[in-house]
User: What shape does this take?
Amino acid sequence: MVGITGTDGKTSTATIIQTLIGIETCGYIGTNGRSYGSFKGETGNTTPDVDKLEPYLDKFVKNNCKYVSMEASSEAFFRGRMQDLFFDVSVITNITKEHLNIHGSYENYIECKSMLFQQTKKSGVCVLNHDDEHFMEIKQACNGKIVTYGKGEENTLQIVNYRVNPKCTYITYRYDGNLYEVKSPLLGEFNVYNLAAALLACLSLSYTWEDLMKNIDKLIVDGRMELLDTKTPYYVMIDYAHTPNGITNLLNFVHTLDINRSIVVIGSAGERDYLKRPVMGQTVLDNASYAIFTYEDPRSEDPYDIIQQLISTAKDSHHNYEIEVDRRTAIKKAINMANPKDMVLVLGKGNETYQKLKNETIYFNDVEEAYKAVEEREKREIVLE
Assistant: This one.
């Protein structure tokens, strides 16, 4: 049992672990559903209730999986979904303010994150991000052996340096006194950390560096920094980023690339942490060239009210945005306004296939909608020519 928790990066890190070990040997449970080998299924929650989780794990065992790489959300611990589960390896990516509507306070949120490490076997391993500001708090909760990753020489796995280009990241890691050069298909500093966490988790399971490098070229995380193959002079990227920290990291990375403008389509989920909305909106408008605010799983809330909260602190000081409540139209607008070397970013949902509205859940996929919008634009431009 390998559990991964953190505010950002859980899905990426859990998927990386599954890929490095091998999808025939390691199952995955998390935001992107459940999978092993060629099988893919839904879960309903990032971390399912135990009555669903037990059959999922049983199916993995019966199909010869020896490991499961599972996202362990703070809400799952808060709601008691993880009782009586014990982990061989536990991993944390980072902690920033999120889900305060559920936990009531930042301290409670951190406490729920730390429960993963309390439920690690004494013979198990706790993989910690030494560069995260809450490192010491999580360290105190650890029940197993502690190993760390980060930029300092004191870490079990050190991030020595890295260089990013639009197609890959070149990284130098130090482990067990040796330097390793890695070419990763995953982009951005945050993925340098996610990969470090995953590598250290796998090494803790007695895999060798050489074993893990056999699958490094296979790394891909659906809906995470997914650059669409549009063959257009502008770029379109789909990403799950929905926290201020995740949005900042993504936009900072995007602007290191050879692009002109960044055009962001974004909303905020209804019946979820409303306290983060003004910070999200401010973050987007401070870091993006232009933003289109739209709905994202509004549930019982009025989508327009959510958008007003998103722009509440920034609307008087920023004019680089517009409101388009309908998400399909917002995606089309962003793609239609893109000039050569502009980057359109559709954020918040990744490769999810639904939108939760007031009275129904509808099928909706940002990747598909973006491709449709590109195709419609191409057809119009051919006619105009």
Summary: The domain at 2-218 is CATH 3.40.1190.10 (UDP-N-acetylmuramoyl-L-alanine:D-glutamate ligase). The chain is about 35% helix and 25% strand. The mean pLDDT is 92. The chain has two domains: 2-218, 226-384.
